[in-house]
Write a structure and sequence with these properties.
The chain has 136 residues and is mainly α. It is built from 7 helices and no strands. Helix content is 69%, strand content 0%.
């Protein structure tokens, strides 16, 4: 179980990811707001984080880091990105995954397999299997 500060850190990281290419799009905002609700973060706290990011806190739990990486994959693909942004977004996602302490082999495999799924959204069970294989 993750604490409130860790939840705020996760959300702040996702906001930074969405803001990477300037403004947060409406569809991204709604997705992030849904994640905030899932994490039991109020709308006021969520809106505050958009303007006042907090420092990244490394999650101890490997499974929580995988869940967070999956959220970032979903966020990246939520509005169907254009090919000129594709490589920048993939590099950004790869670097976020490395910073979370996930194996580069697993991240690379997820990014490679992502291309073969509808809307480039890797199903959670496939993603978990990829990381489980690398983790063992």
């Amino acid at each position: 179980m993750i604490n409130r500060v860790e939840k705020l850190s996760l959300l702040s990281e996702m906001i930074a990811f969405a803001k990477y290419d300037k403004d947060i799009k409406h569809i991204e905002y709604n997705f992030l707001l849904g994640v905030a609700k899932q994490l039991e973060i109020s709308r006021e706290d969520f809106d505050y984080l958009i303007e006042h990011p907090i420092n990244y806190i490394h999650l101890k739990s490997h499974s929580e880091r995988i869940v967070q990486f999956h959220r970032l994959v979903l966020l990246m693909n939520i509005d169907g990105y254009s090919s000129d942004n594709n490589s920048k977004n993939v590099i950004k996602l790869y670097n976020f995954g490395l910073r979370m302490g996930l194996s580069h082999e697993s991240i690379t495999k997820v990014l490679y397999l992502m291309e073969s799924f509808p809307n480039k959204i890797v199903p959670p069970d496939v993603l978990i299997d990829i990381f489980k294989t690398q983790y063992n």
